Amino acid sequence: MNSDQLKGKWKQMKGSVRERWGKLTDDDIDVINGQNEQLVGKIQEKYGIAKDEAQRQVDDWMRADRHSQEADVEMRRAS
């Protein structure tokens, strides 16, 4: 998933973001509004980690979500 896809699916992704980064508040989620740089910055701020680490976490999360979506599609096709 790229940044444009994140922005487009933000409403669907909010719950997953809350699960993964529990320190983010509802206000943080609203400010982020599907923007990759905002998400990375808020994670960096809330967790006291380097920007590179925050970006790695976001990339890993987005990659895992993409794989999850692909698995869902495959399951629907098999049904």
Provide a descriptive summary of the structure in words:
By secondary structure, the chain is mostly helical. Helix content is 81%, strand content 0%. Helix 3 (26-32) packs antiparallel against helix 4 and helix 4 crosses helix 5. The longest helix has 28 residues, at 51-78. The radius of gyration is 13 Å and the shape is globular. It starts with a helix and ends with a helix. The mean pLDDT is 87.
Quick take:
The protein is mainly alpha-helical. The protein is 81% helix and 0% strand.
Q: What is the residue-averaged pLDDT?
A: 87
What would you call the shape?
globular
Oligomer category:
single chain
Distance between the first and last residues' Cα: 25 Å
- The secondary-structure class comes to mainly alpha
Keywords summarizing the entry:
81% helix, 79 residues, globular
Task: Annotate the secondary structure layout.
Layout: H1 3-8, H2 10-20, H3 26-32, H4 36-47, H5 51-78
Helix pairs in contact: 3-4, 4-5
